[in-house]
Amino acid sequence: MILPIYAYGQPVLKKVATDITPDYPKLKELIENMWETMYNADGVGLAAPQIGLSIRLFIVDTAKPLENSKDEDAPKGIKKVFINAEMLEETGDEWAYEEGCLSIPDIRGDVDRPEHIRIRYFDENFNEHEESFSGLDARVIQHEYDHIEGILFTELLKPVKKQLVQRKLIKIKKGAVKVSYPMRFVTR
Predict the structure, then answer these.
(1) Distance from chain centroid for Cα 74
(2) Going from the N-terminus, what domains does the chain have, and what CATH number goes with each?
(3) Does the pLDDT value for residue 66 go beyond 60?
(4) Half-sphere exposure of 169 (CA within 13 A, CB side)
């Protein structure tokens, strides 16, 4: 089932999410719905706060955009579920890359992030993992991890860019934006 994505301004996007246990109600169904929702919106990641749930769950698929690549040396990407993730280390040179977010449509901007991460998390079967990621995989994980920490990518933009996007953010908050996927805007 495709779920509505919560738009900028929704309080759930600014909360630090809470851990869940293996008996979380309908977890498998929730994860399936998150995949369907993310693919419907052409995303590469989706965090539970973006669908209104303040829990430490996010999904990442950097493999799908690369699946038709003819370059044999190109990175293969990842497709993973992250539950109760804990960032252990962020290292390497920071590099800028233009990010966007399904909760903040029509806004993109360069965000500086470290190139390498080490993270501990549980998968959808509650098997514990500790892994390292680099490059684009690390960046998408960092972006989604920020969501479960209540941080939006627009907060990481350079000051001038932050100023330039303020009007657009107000429009999104008011629901004055067109998207091709269901969204839930702030209602007053």
Answers:
(1) 23
(2) 5-67+74-180 (3.90.45.10)
(3) no
(4) 17
**How sure is the predictor about 97, in pLDDT bands with cuts at 50, 70 and 90?**
very high
Residues 155-181: b if buried by 16+ CB within 10 A, e if exposed: ebbeeeeeeebeebbeebbeeebeeeb
pTM of the complete model beyond 0.90: yes
Split at pLDDT 50, 70, 90, the class of 74 is: low
Is the C-alpha dihedral spanning 83, 129, 77, 80 positive or negative?
Answer: negative
For residues 8 and 6, what is the distance between their CA atoms, to the nearest angstrom?
7
Verify whether residue 94 is a known catalytic residue.
no
Residue-wise DSSP of 115-152: EEEEEEEE-TT--EEEEEEEHHHHHHHHHHHHHHTT--
Asked if 78 and 137 touch (Cβ cutoff 8 Å), the reply is yes
Q: What is the pLDDT, as a whole number, of residue 186?
A: 87
Q: How far apart are CA 91 and CA 83, in angstroms?
A: 22
Q: Which of 128, 144, 149, 155 is catalytic?
A: 144
